[in-house]
Every structure is written in structure tokens, then in C-alpha cells.
Specification:
With 133 residues, the protein is α+β, with helices and mostly antiparallel strands. Helix content is 29%, strand content 20%. Bound molecules: tetrahydrodeoxyuridine. Tetrahydrodeoxyuridine binds next to helix 2.
Length: 133
């Protein structure tokens, strides 16, 4: 599928402008292309109980599921200046669940697969040997 990185970047910027960041003053926006061609996005939402902060990627995943699901194909995350931001460790795991190792991410160093950012990942396919029900 053709990836329009410029469009993803502008959608991430638009999401960043909606961020709720009264504590860090560090707005983040993320946007991703889904397997069916739609675009999902999210912004960070902070909390007075700082540790409860929702990263932009959390909002994006919520948008993905609430708008019909599917697989993430390409992802862009930006700061207030529109520079590429790397997803935090926790959010790399969220992206693994919904994009898999082949998910393409825009970075300072160009486009990279998630497998480079989260090698040897734990994912849904690892959950096989459960207790019998
Ligand atoms: N943040 C994100 O939204 N995504 C990331 O992957 C890194 C961090 C947010 C959380 C917090 O609101 C702010 O950036 C500063 O850490």
C-alpha cells in the first residue's frame, strides 16, 4: 500500500495541537495509516496524578479500535515543532500489538520497521501454552 508520509505528518501535527499537557507542556501528536486505508490519530492527555498520563499512542490505539480496528501499517509521531519523536518503550509494545514487526515508523533517520525499535518482541503470537480451560 502507498504510504503518504506527508499526510501522516500533517495529521500527527493536527493531533498534537489538541494535546492536554498542563504539566509537561510537551504536546505530542501521532497518526497512523491503517490496513484499510483510513488514518487514525491521537494526542497525549496528562493527569494531575502524573503517572496516569496517556501517551499520544494510547489515544491512537483507542481511535483505531473505536473506528473499526485493523492493522497499523505506517506511523508518525511529532513534537511541537513537527520533529519526529520516538515512541516510549511502553508505546512500542502497544504498536507491536496492533502493527506487528513490519510496522513502518518515521524517525530522524528515515523510515524504520518496528522490529528495529523493539527487537525480539513479545506479541500475541507468543501466547500459546495456556492452562487448559
Ligand atoms: N509522550 C507521548 O505522548 N508519547 C511518547 O511516546 C513519549 C511521551 C508524552 C507523555 C507526556 O505527556 C509527555 O510526552 C512528556 O513525557
Amino acid at each position: 500500500m502507498e504510504i503518504n508520509w506527508q499526510l501522516l505528518h500533517s495529521e500527527a501535527l493536527a493531533a498534537m495541537k489538541k494535546a492536554y499537557v498542563p504539566y509537561s507542556h510537551f504536546p505530542v501528536g501521532a497518526a497512523a495509516l491503517v490496513s484499510d486505508g483510513r488514518i487514525v490519530s491521537g494526542c497525549n492527555v496528562e493527569n494531575a496524578s502524573y503517572g496516569l498520563t496517556l501517551c499520544a499512542e494510547c489515544g491512537l490505539v483507542s481511535d483505531l479500535i473505536a473506528s473499526g480496528g485493523g492493522k497499523l501499517i505506517a506511523f508518525s509521531c511529532v513534537d511541537i515543532n513537527g520533529n519526529a519523536l520516538m515512541p516510549c518503550g511502553r508505546c512500542r509494545q502497544l504498536l507491536q500489538e496492533h502493527g506487528g514487526s513490519a510496522l513502518q515508523l518515521m524517525t530522524d533517520q528515515g523510515v524504520k520497521p518496528l522490529s528495529e525499535l523493539l527487537p525480539w518482541a513479545f506479541g500475541p503470537e507468543e501466547i500459546t501454552n495456556r492452562l487448559p480451560s
